[in-house]
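Follow-up to my earlier ticket, as requested here are the two runs.
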Amino acid sequence: MRNRLIFGIAILGLLAGLLAAYISGREKKPPPPAFTPASNPYARGISANGIVESYQTSGANVNIYPEVAGIIVRILVAEGQQVRRGDLLLAMDDSVQRATVEQQTAQLEAARAVLAELKAEPRPENLEVAKAQVEAARAALKTAQDQLDKLKRSSQIEAKSVSKDTMDNAENGVKVAAAGVRVAEKQLDLVQAGAWIYDVRNQESQCTALSRAVASSTALLNKYTIRAPVDGRILAVNAAVGGYVSAQGAYDGYAQSYGPVVVMGSAEDIVEVRCYVDEILVQRLPDPSAIRATMFLRGSDVKVPLEFVRVQPYVSPKIELSNARTERVDLRVLPLIFRFRKTASMAVYPGQLVDVYIAAK
């Protein structure tokens, strides 16, 4: 009885093993792909990596860096907002520079006041004083002359009535009074002549120098506000109120590198694709007039025919588009620019990576 039980258990174990082997050996049907992988649509096609950018007649997206360093106190735009050339984007703390401009402006106003004073000479009050001094000097001369004449007449009548010392003093008094008249008349001429031309020119030079200093300080003050250089759309604002920015841009704590404070692009529905063709494939490119290309959006079945725009005629070291811009490899690439019109149903944004196939010769 015991042997039969053991034999039955062994048969059941064998059957269970065979069943498990059958189940595990069955080939499972793979699930359908989420999207059709991109494939070369041309018989002889060149594959290239591309990055989406806003369409520019030349260059790429507009990367805006401040020319001065400071703390951001206001941000007046939002990402995706349409702006016009000259619109204020953000402002930095300019309290120190503004005080400098105000100080230099006050110095300029003081220098201009002095210049106006020089050009307005002679002052009527000074002129009247000078004329009065001339009249007083002439009166003093007449008094001294009359005193001398009296002494001379007395000496003619009686020689001993006037001493030689008194006569000499009277004659010297006349000479001193005459010199006083000449001094007063010269002083009147000086007052009537007004400011010396060299003083005026020196003050004019000081006004010019201060005016240029104010213009320079004002120009520097204006750099504490960043305005839109062109019409377009705000693609990214990489700073916040209270953050510090410099000519290097804004520091990105995630990427641990500096980047533009504001990135702008065109406001049109036309989008461009900058693709990089390996240098070993450049010889296979057809004539620019015959270039045809197709773009595939990663993660979807969307493919878009591209319109050729231009070749950027400079072969540069290849960069890893999905990582830091400073990462380089030995291969060099030739940039080609294409464009296409974006539709409402097309989820395409600047900075997006795409696959591009170019029809070869």
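Run two:
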Amino acid sequence: MNNLENYNQQTIEIDSASISKAFVSNVFSYMTLALVISGVAAYWFAGSGMILRLLEGSSIMLWVIMLAPLAMVMVMSFAFNKLSASALIALFIAYSLVNGISLSVIFLIYATATIAKVFFITAGLFATMAVIGYTTKTDLTKMGSILMMAVIGIVIASVVNMFMKSEAFDYIISCVGVLVFTGLVAYDTQKVKRIGAGVEYGSATASKLAIMGALSLYLDFINLFLFLLRIFGRRD
């Protein structure tokens, strides 16, 4: 009888691990798709000169492009229960497109070669921390709470520096930002893994949670990339 119970327990653990792995795979697939869409949109929008025409044209349209990504994130977060899985996926894709357009301004500030170099540095660092977050046995929950408070501090410090215009302070903020979002990659990866182990794979809820997990990791990647670009990017 004990052997049968042990066998059943092992089967449950194997199934749970398989479901979690499939869920994590879906999350990273969505995140990768979003990064590709954002990258292509940013490169095309800058290369075609559209961003220059936008900057020289209507200021209202510019503000729409800059603020639309934030509005979309808020809608996905606060209307999570009301939106269907397909609507959430469509909104996530639209968000990655609009965010890519808003990110196209970096091509006006940094050389394309520099952007590419920092992107690959970011990808390597992100992948390393994602593996650590997925495989570590240490509970990162407490670290996640501290890091989220640090994100709030970074936002406040960045707003303050908009008035101070201190390059030294900006450098410090960027260094702290790299440390914070590097840690968040590991934390969010572990969180996604745990969520995957507790959801019904293939359900609408699982699909919606996969999108939100992809959104968190996408934001971690983008913020890590931008902070690294501010540190290492060579201005044109």
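The only thing I checked on run two: The longest helix spans residues 2-47. Let me know what else you need.
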